[in-house]
């Protein structure tokens, strides 16, 4: 049986892209190539695109449960004035899990009229970082645990902003790397795929 070329696989995923998605599968592949440090047409990236696209459907079914159990990597959950995060897992429920106001949860991969150019995953990216942030921030995501039977609150920090901006962004990188299958960014963050931006590292 003939093998299907990686580029053809990616095109098929584009054709099956969710209609309500703001980002195309090609753009998502660019993002994931930087996150995974793999060529954008590699099997690893294509698989991550597929898993990311499937996650919203699983989320809809999962939210049908009234109060699913929740675990956390910290106890107690730290108190902070704001949360910087990415579109990983259940962002709409994150504020409630952290007991902060929804307006204080900021997604660095959200649509933004004035994004900032910041080094992210080793290359310049456009991130939606608010002009002003409270002094104390956490990095967090509310994600599915295996088999989607419960949720897990993954928290890092508290970080002092802006003095610890670099440490905060590195924590967000680790968060995305831990759950690439649950990452659904709103847009492409980098100007090109990893093999173009980091040719000496990704090829």
Short descriptors:
203 residues, alpha/beta, five-stranded mixed beta sheet, two-stranded antiparallel ribbon, 32% helix, 19% strand, globular
How much helical structure, as a percent, in the residues? 25-40%
Largest sheet: 5 strands, mixed
Q: What would the principal axes of the Cα set say about the shape?
A: globular
Strand content: 15-25%
What is the terminal-to-terminal distance? 27 Å
Helix-strand pattern: HHHEEHEEEEEHH
Mean of pLDDT = 84
Rg computed from alpha carbons, rounded to a whole number of angstroms: 17 Å
pLDDT < 50 stretches: 9-20
Strand order of the largest sheet: 1-7-6-2-3
Secondary-structure-derived class: alpha/beta
Q: What's the count of strands?
A: 7
Task: Count every helix, treating DSSP H or I runs of 4 or more residues as helices.
Answer: 6
SSE blueprint:
Blueprint: H1 6-15, H2 25-36, H3 43-62, E1 70-72, E2 82-85, H4 94-98, E3 105-107, E4 116-120, E5 123-127, E6 136-144, E7 151-160, H5 165-178, H6 194-197
Parallel strand pairs: 1-7, 2-3, 2-6
Antiparallel strand pairs: 4-5, 6-7
């Amino acid at each position: 049986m003939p093998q299907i070329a990686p580029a053809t696989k990616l095109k098929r995923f584009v054709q099956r892209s969710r209609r309500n998605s703001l980002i195309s599968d090609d753009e998502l592949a660019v993002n994931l190539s930087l996150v995974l440090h793999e060529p954008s047409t590699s099997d690893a990236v294509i698989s991550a695109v597929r898993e990311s696209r499937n996650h919203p459907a699983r989320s809809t079914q999962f939210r049908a449960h009234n109060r699913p159990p929740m675990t956390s990597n910290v106890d107690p959950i730290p108190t902070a004035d704001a949360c910087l995060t990415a579109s990983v897992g259940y962002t709409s429920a994150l504020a409630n899990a952290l007991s902060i106001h929804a307006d204080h949860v900021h997604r660095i991969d959200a649509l933004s009229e004035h994004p900032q150019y910041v080094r992210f995953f080793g290359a310049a990216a456009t991130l939606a970082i608010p002009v002003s942030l409270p002094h104390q921030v956490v990095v967090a995501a509310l994600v599915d645990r295996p088999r989607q039977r419960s949720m897990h609150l993954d928290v890092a920090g508290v970080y002092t902003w802006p003095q610890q901006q670099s440490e905060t962004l590195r924590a967000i990188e680790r968060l995305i790397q831990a759950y690439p299958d649950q990452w659904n960014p709103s847009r492409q963050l980098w100007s090109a795929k990893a093999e173009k931006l980091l040719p000496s590292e990704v090829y």
